[in-house]
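INFO  loader      accepted 1 record
INFO  loader      residues=479
INFO  predictor   begin
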Amino acid sequence: MDYISVAMSWPARLVCAAILCCAVSMGTPVAAQQVDAAGDRPVPEKTLEGTPEAPGKVDIQPVARDDEIRQRIADILETTSWFGEPEVSVREGIVFLQGTTESDESRQWAGDLANNTEGVVAVVNQIEVRPGTVWNFDPAFEVLNDLARNVVRMLPLIVVALVVTAISWIIARFTVGGLRGRLQARSLSPLLREVIARAGGILVMLVGVYLVLRIAGLTQLAFTVVGGTGLIGLALGIAFRDITENFLASLFLSLQQPFREGDLVEVASVTGYVQRLTSRTTVLLTLDGNQVQVPNATVFKSTIRNFTSNPNRREDFVVGIGYEDSISRAQDVVLKVLAEHPAVLAEPEPLVLVENLGSATVNLRVYFWLDGARHSWVKVKSSVIRLVKRAFQDAGISLPDEAREVTFPHGVPVRMVESAGAAEPGRPVGAQPEAEPETVATRAEAGLQSEAGEIKDQARKSWTPGENLLTRASTKDHG
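INFO  predictor   done
INFO  writer      dumping C-alpha cells
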C-alpha cells in the first residue's frame, strides 16, 4: 500500500479527477436509473419490444439531436404512404418505430432507413405487418405493368427477331427449290430428293432460330435448341414409331425399286398390279379389281414376287391316264399339243413327267412356259388342258375317273358301274364322247391375250391416295 500511495502522485490524481468530471458532464450512466431529457427526474427502466438489431457506432458527442432524428424519420415514413399511423420516438440515439404496414419488405425498409440515419445508435422496429385483403389485385397489376414495360423495352429485339426469321424463311424456301432443281438431274427417287431438299431448308431455319436467340441474349437456350434437335427427333421417332417405320421403309423402297408402277407382284399374300408407292403404303390393284394398301414396313420385310421382271412364266397341271395305256405314247401326245400351241414357248422346252401312281390312274404333270407379257397364263392353261383332253380322246387314251375305278391289291382294276354297258351320265348308250373343238382359244376363254392392259386401265381410272414415288414401267412391260 505504501508503494501505491507513492506512485499516485499529485499529477496522476489530477488526471483521474479530470476523467471523472468529463464522464459526469457527458451524461454517461453511472447508476441503474436513466435521466430524461430535462435531467430533473429519473426515468424508470423499460422493457424494449421488437426485434433487436446490431447496434451501430456510438458517438460520444452525437451530431444530431434526438428530436431532429425523430422528425426526419417520421417525415420520410409519412411521405412513402406505406405505413399506417407511423410513430417514431428517439431516446439517447435509440429509435423506436411503431405502426402498421402490408409487407415484410416495407417493415425491413423502415428499419434500414432508421439504421442508416445519422446519429442513430440502434433501432427497435415494432412495426406490425397486417394481413392484406383477399381481393387485392395490386400485385397482379404490378406484374402486368412490369410485363408491359419489358415488352416496350424488348420491342427493338422483337423487330430484329421478326426480320431475321422472315429472311431465314425466304432463304430456306430458295434452298429447298435450289436443291430440288440440282437433284432433279440425278438418278434419285422422288422421296429421297424431297427429303434432302427439305432437310436443307430445315437446316437454314435452325440457323435463323439460333441467330434470333443469340440476338435476344439467350445464348444458352440457343445451344440447347440446336443441341436438342436430335433429341427431339429421337423422341418423335419413338412416339410415332409405326409412322416413322413406314416412312423409312418407303425411302428404302424408292431407292431400291424392287418393282415399278404397273408390275404384277405378290407381297404379303396379296397379288396385284402396283399402282403407286406413297410415303406410307404400297397400293396394289388385285386381279379381281380390288384396291389393296399394304404398309411399306410390311412390304419391305416381306418376300416380294415380281411376275413382270421376267415376263416368261411356267405353268403346270396334272392329267391322269389308265393303267392299260402307254405312258410314253401319252407323253408324246401331250408334247405334240404343246409344240403346236401358239402361246407355249419352245424355249425353255416343255416337259411331261410322271407324277405318281394313283388308285386308278397314272398321273402325269405337264410343264410349259409362256410369255406373261403377251398372254394370260390362266387362259393359256385352260386352252392347253382342253386340247390335251381332245388329243387323248383322238388317240384312244383313257381318262379314268378315280371315283368310279379302284385298283385292288395285286393290281387288279375293277370298274364300278351300275350295269353292263351303262353309259356315262348324260350320254346315250354306245355314243362316243363329244370331241373338243380344235380351236386354240374358245369363245369362253375369250382369247389368250393378257388382261394386264385392261386392269391397268381400270387402275388409271380409279382413285389412288398419295403421291407416287415409283418409276413408271415402259409400255412394253406388262404383268
